[in-house]
DNA sequence: GATTAGGCTTCG
């Protein structure tokens, strides 16, 4: 790595310089000598910004002073750095820091030497094999209650207020940030930079920042911060428990465990000392006379007049009010026409004014934005019977009004993208002609009536108990600790997997784990493996079973043993009999299930019969296979079965068999179905990415254990899902679902996860 | 090399 940052701990470099490097005194530098294995060290006294040479090569220049020979006549030298190395250095080199260069070239100057400057300069570049080391100083951070006028300090703070970068009246972008820390002292900082990237990437109140080299000035009797030379910032998500990953434009920065600790402490302090607004407002949750921040995607933009500009955005939810459409000339509208048409009911017009126009013009279609302090204003025109909702981003920057572009890596953007992808546009919408009707006005009375009807619409589900429980919003549920029970009224936006039979999972009621249903091949493979062990004749014909063996006529001979479990020392009718089989194939076992009540595949050990691997069913009954839980079961000896055999009338119930086989009742095969669903509440400010939700069999009124082998049941389930979530419908037209949902914890060695289960709810009879 | 803004308010 050509540019390295050395960390110094108690005066010692943690990454010492390579041993082949020898230090050279500045005053001994001469043109023509080989400095491949030599280095110079000094303090940066001047650094010039990165520029480009005429041929496009990056270039930067710094002046280094020999710190050990400060009284020497020749104690300063200029270093020219070229190419990528220049770019990297420009980002990490700051005035006053220690600078080391190795493998440089010395060039003699032909001009008169001035003051203490050397008559040579140095050239360094990656191509020439140079290496640059800078020594990170030990940063000291000043608490906000210890700031003094005229100092340049490093500090940490929680963002209490901010204005996203905007174009100032001077030459730079400006961002105003008010910080607070554990001292409860506030500091408002005015940050300027010609380069947007050098301003802190703050996305919300509660973010945590680290500022290096910020100048403190007194203004109106209060301390304020202002950017000074070499200002650098890191920004962190302020959420307790979120990964501590800095947002920064510089590729090299110091960040150590100590700093991680500081962030975590500030997060905890902020959690109880800063009011961080609740969940973000979605378009579906806007209210008239509300100022709100919106995370959205830009789908269209248009110039309106000199002082205003139109942004068309969507967030996947539908505004519950008719929204205005700002009339613009079709030729002025930038954006994908087809998409704009498809989104005509979901995208909203936001009119931005004055100082925001310039920034709005520069936005790229498709980018993700957070627009701060949008004004939702109810208004009605003279020729309208019904009022509509307007969205304005007023001029000025009060209240942090502004527009921020969010990177794709932002967690809110990731969530939004996933949600937008799940919003299916109806075929009819995409098939319609793309004639743009942007001049037409918003919805009319009919729309409003339809909307009211929808609100009163009956649910497609029926609650079978707990009628007195009142509805809870999904966001409350996801924000609360488990376990709890709730009633919800929600719409099913979409679900996974679309192949419904894949939604069947094995669920263990003991440890709550979900496991995939092993496929046929797994079982076949296990049977194949166990056929290699011949049945042990010593284990045949005991008091509780009678054994029969034979050898197959195939080329590769195979021994099969069947043990018929007796009752009262008697064999029973085949349809009442439990048999155990050794050495059978899948096909043979399948055939036997038609004839006998239950089948247990087994193999011989030296002194007992035992069950096969847990990936194989321990029991086959009819066409249903039963499995044990891989996570929490410990198999018990097979002879425990004799106790069931001794019962008056052995029922051979799978649950009962499971009980004698395993330490715990672990069997819950196919008892619960699991689908991955995204539930979404209409008119609430909530949406979520997919959550795992379990459904009881009685919800679908389909025995889950049989769906894998029944085309008819698979079709029935598909029809049910089509009724709950009709494909191609708009959100507004989706049916309501009323459900009871309970949250529960699933713990494994790695993490604790909250999962959800629908209970005491069934699909309405007239739905399917 | 200085300037920008200096949040405590928005309203077309």
UniProtKB/TrEMBL annotation:
Q: Does the keyword Nuclease apply?
A: no
Gene Ontology biological-process entries? regulation of telomere maintenance via telomerase; telomere capping
Which Gene Ontology terms of cellular component type are present? nuclear telomere cap complex; nucleoplasm
Sorted UniProt keywords: Chromosome, DNA-binding, Nucleus, Telomere
Domain Telomeric single stranded DNA binding POT1/Cdc13 positions: 141-271
**What main location does UniProt list?**
nucleus
Query: Where does it reside?
Result: Chromosome, Telomere; Nucleus
- Specify whether Transmembrane is a keyword of the entry: no
GO molecular-function terms, A-Z: G-rich strand telomeric DNA binding; telomerase inhibitor activity
To which protein family does this belong? Belongs to the telombin family.
Put simply, this protein is called Protection of telomeres protein 1
- The organism named in the record is Emberiza fucata
Q: What is the lineage of its organism?
A: Eukaryota, Metazoa, Chordata, Craniata, Vertebrata
GN (gene name): Pot1
């Amino acid at each position: 790595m050509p540019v390295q940052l050395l960390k110094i701990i108690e005066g010692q470099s943690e990454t010492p310089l390579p041993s082949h490097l020898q230090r050279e005194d500045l005053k001994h530098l001469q043109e023509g000598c080989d400095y491949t294995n030599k280095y110079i060290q000094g303090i940066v006294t001047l650094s010039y910004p990165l520029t480009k040479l005429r041929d496009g090569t990056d270039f930067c220049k710094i002046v280094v002073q020999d710190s050990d020979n400060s009284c020497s006549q020749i104690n300063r030298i200029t270093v020219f750095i070229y190419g990528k190395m220049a770019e990297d250095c420009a980002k990490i080199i700051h005035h006053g820091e220690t600078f080391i260069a190795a493998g440089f070239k010395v060039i003699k100057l032909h001009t008169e030497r001035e003051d203490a400057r050397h008559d040579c300069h140095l050239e360094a570049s990656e191509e020439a094999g140079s290496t640059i080391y800078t020594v990170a100083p030990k940063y000291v951070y000043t608490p906000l209650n210890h700031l003094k006028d005229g100092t340049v300090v490093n500090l940490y703070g929680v963002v209490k207020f901010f204005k996203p970068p905007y174009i100032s009246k001077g030459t730079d972008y400006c961002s105003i940030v008010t910080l607070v820390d554990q001292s409860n002292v506030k500091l408002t900082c005015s940050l300027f930079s010609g380069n947007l990237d050098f301003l802190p990437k703050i996305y919300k109140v509660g973010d945590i920042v680290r500022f290096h080299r910020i100048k403190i000035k007194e203004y109106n009797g209060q301390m304020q911060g202002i950017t000074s030379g070499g200002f650098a910032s890191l920004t962190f998500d302020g959420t307790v428990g979120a990964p501590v990953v800095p947002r920064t434009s510089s590729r090299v920065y110091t960040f150590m465990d100590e700093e991680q600790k500081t962030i975590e402490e500030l997060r905890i302090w902020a959690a109880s000392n800063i009011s961080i607004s609740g969940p973000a407002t979605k378009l579906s949750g806007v209210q008239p006379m509300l100022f709100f921040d919106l995370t959205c995607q830009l789908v269209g933009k248009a110039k309106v007049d000199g002082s205003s500009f139109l942004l068309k955005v969507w967030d996947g939810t539908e505004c519950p009010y008719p929204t205005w459409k700002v009339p613009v000339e079709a030729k002025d509208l930038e954006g994908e026409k087809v998409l704009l048409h498809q989104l005509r009911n979901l995208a909203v017009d936001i009119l931005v004014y004055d100082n925001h126009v310039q920034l709005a013009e520069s936005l790229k279609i498709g980018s993700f934005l957070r627009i701060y302090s949008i004004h939702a204003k109810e208004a009605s025109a003279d020729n309208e019977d019904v009022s509509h909702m307007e969205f304005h981003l007023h001029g000025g920057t009060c209240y942090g009004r502004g527009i921020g572009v969010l990177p794709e890596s932002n967690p809110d953007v990731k969530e939004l993208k996933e949600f937008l992808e799940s919003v299916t546009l109806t075929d009819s919408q995409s098939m319609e002609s793309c004639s743009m009707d942007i001049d037409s006005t918003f919805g009319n009375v009919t729309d409003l009536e339809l909307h009211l009807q929808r609100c009163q619409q009956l649910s497609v589900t029926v609650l079978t108990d707990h009628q007195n429980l009142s509805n809870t919003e999904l966001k409350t549920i996801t924000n609360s600790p488990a376990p709890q029970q709730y009633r919800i009224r929600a719409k099913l936006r979409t679900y996974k997997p679309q192949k419904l039979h894949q939604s069947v999972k094995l669920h263990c009621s003991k440890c709550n784990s979900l496991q995939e249903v092993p496929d046929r091949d797994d079982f076949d493979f296990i049977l194949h493996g166990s056929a290699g062990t011949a049945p042990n004749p010593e284990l045949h014909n005991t008091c509780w079973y009678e054994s029969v063996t034979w050898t197959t006529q195939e080329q590769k001979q195979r021994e099969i043993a069947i043990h018929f479990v007796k009752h009262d020392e008697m064999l029973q009718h085949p349809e009442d009999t439990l048999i155990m089989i050794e050495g059978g194939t899948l096909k043979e076992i399948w055939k036997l299930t038609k004839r006998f009540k239950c089948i247990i595949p087994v193999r011989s050990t030296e002194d007992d019969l035992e069950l096969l691997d847990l990936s194989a069913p321990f029991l086959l009954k009819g066409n249903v296979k039963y499995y044990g839980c891989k996570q929490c079961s410990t198999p018990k000896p097979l002879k425990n079965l004799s106790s069931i055999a001794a019962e008056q009338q052995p029922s051979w119930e799978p649950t009962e068999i499971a009980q004698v086989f395993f330490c715990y009742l672990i069997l819950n095969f196919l008892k619960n179905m699991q689908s991955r669903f995204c539930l979404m509440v209409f008119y609430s400010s909530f949406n979520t990415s997919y959550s795992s939700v379990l459904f009881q069999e009685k919800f679908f009124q389909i025995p889950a254990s049989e769906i894998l082998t029944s085309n008819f049941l698979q079709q029935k389930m598909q029809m049910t899902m089509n009724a709950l979530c009709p494909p191609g419908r708009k959100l507004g037209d989706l049916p309501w679902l009323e459900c009871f949902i309970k949250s529960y914890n699933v713990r494994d060695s790695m993490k604790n996860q909250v999962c959800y289960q629908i209970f005491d709810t069934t699909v309405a009879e007239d739905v399917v």
